[in-house]
Amino acid sequence: MVQQRRAQWIPVGVIVLAVVVDLVTPTAVTSAPLLVVAPVSAAPLLGLRGIIAVGVASMAVHAALAQVDRTFGWQRGVANQLTLLAVTVLAVFIHRTLEGQHATTRRARQVAEVAQRAVLPRPPSRLGDLLIAARYVPAEDEAMIGGDLYVVQDTPYGTRVMVGDVRGKGLGAVSAVSADLGAFRFAADEAEDLPGLVRSLEQALLREGERRGGQEQEEGFTTALIAEFAADLTSVRVVNRGHPAPVLLDARGAATVLEPSQAAPPLGMGALGAWTTPVDTFPFPPGATLVCFTDGVTEARDGTGTFYDPAERLPVLVRHRALVGDPATPAQILQALIEDVGRHTGGRAQDDQALLALHRPRH
After folding, report:
1. What 8-state DSSP symbol labels residue 252?
2. Contact in structure between 146 and 138 (CB atoms under 8 Å)
3. Which residues pair with 312 in a beta bridge?
4. What is the distance between the alpha carbons of residues 63 and 31, in angstroms, rounded to a whole number?
5. I want to staple 292 with a disulfide (CB 3.0 to 4.6 A). Which of 179, 260, 285, 356 is the partner?
6. Which helix (H) or strand (E) holds 155?
């Protein structure tokens, strides 16, 4: 916003520069070409009235300078005035064209936001005593949603969570995300345990792959982290199917990576073989926060090619907030993590990021 306000002074700066150039150069040198630049530069920066004001000011300055130099004739005066008038009209036309394009872009973004809320709704901020925060950061500003997903659901068997990343990009990935979410929402209420839930997801993804056919049938898969919290929140059961391991922050901010006890392939690859579904149980003490994310975080690289390590950075981010006397909420943890990843990559987002933080209060 500050840079935008500063940029609005560019046309004025061009006019001032034209005056200086005209005063310090011989009479034979004219600053009219510089004055022509002023209304053109105002087209993308100012409103309609501002563009006209810059055009009129350019014409007035040119007339005054020509009078001082005593060169206001047909070639050096009237012709230049007509040129400035034509350029001002052109700047107004350019401005109106840009405004139309911006309006189209705004409408497209609004449609994308509605689609995002429909396909990937934000989970509730609280389920029982469990505090929840979720963020989605697209790799491209124009793409509000891609192939990453998260879902939190209160079920008869406890609060169940899934964070996933489907293979592919574009509309095909969005369609796969929709299928994954629909399958999870149904199976989470029906399956009595996590292995049963995973089997239901596998079957749903295989059916979806058969319907889509082609390469999607052979290579369509989803890396997924599925978690289930005990009713009293004392523990969390985790199934990891080829997904980045989550990080558990305790009340003091110490980080533990919840690595799976046994490697398992992504969901949707059941046609290639049969695998067991290992379920790992971890303690979830009061004050703990489970931070889940997709590979847009763990595969973010800096200029030297070094990958981002959330297990190393999260304690530093949380400790910083604790030092200023402000314990981090789940939403603040995710915001700090997103900003830290951005600093690590120099602001160059390399992949979509879906992040989920689940916190058990101390009391």
Report:
1. T
2. yes
3. none
4. 11
5. 356
6. strand 148-155
Q: How far apart are CA 240 and CA 261, in angstroms?
A: 9
d(CA 220, CA 215): 7
Which residue shows structure tokens 């001082």? 68
Summarised one tens digit per residue, pLDDT across range 147-203 is 788 999 999 999 999 999 887 655 566 777 888 888 899 999 999 999 999 988 888
Q: Which residue is it, tokens 């006397």?
A: 325
- Compute how many other C-beta atoms are within 10 angstroms of the C-beta atom of residue 312: 11
132, HSE (Cβ side, Cα atoms, 13 Å)? 21
Instruction: Answer yes or no: are the C-beta atoms of 241 and 224 closer than 8 Å.
Output: yes
User: What is the number of alpha carbons within 13 Å of residue 330 lying toward its C-beta?
Assistant: 25
User: pLDDT by residue (tens digit) across 98-119?
Assistant: 888 888 777 766 665 665 666 6
CA dihedral of residues 84, 87, 91, 97 (deg, nearest 10): 160
Q: What is the pLDDT of residues 140-160, one digit of tens each?
A: 655 556 678 899 999 999 999
Domains, the chain: 2-113 (no CATH), 122-359 (3.60.40.10)
Residues whose CB falls within 8 Å of the CB of residue 268, separated by 6 or more in sequence, listed in order: 202, 205, 206, 209, 220, 221, 222
Nearest to 246 by CA among 223, 219, 221, 220: 223
Sign for the pseudo-dihedral over CA of 335, 336, 341, 346: positive
Q: How many CB atoms lie within 10 A of CB 138?
A: 19
Q: Among 273, 280, 206, which Cα is nearest to 239's?
A: 280
- Distance (Å, rounded) from C-alpha 245 to C-alpha 192? 24
CA dihedral 216, 219, 223, 224 (to 10 degrees): 50
**Pair 208, 176: CB distance under 8 Å:** yes
DSSP SS3 for 276: coil
Query: Residue 272: which of 295, 246, 299, 242 has the closest Cα?
Result: 242
Residue ranges in the chain assigned as alpha helix (H): 2-7, 10-24, 32-42, 48-69, 79-119, 170-190, 194-212, 214-219, 295-298, 310-323, 330-345
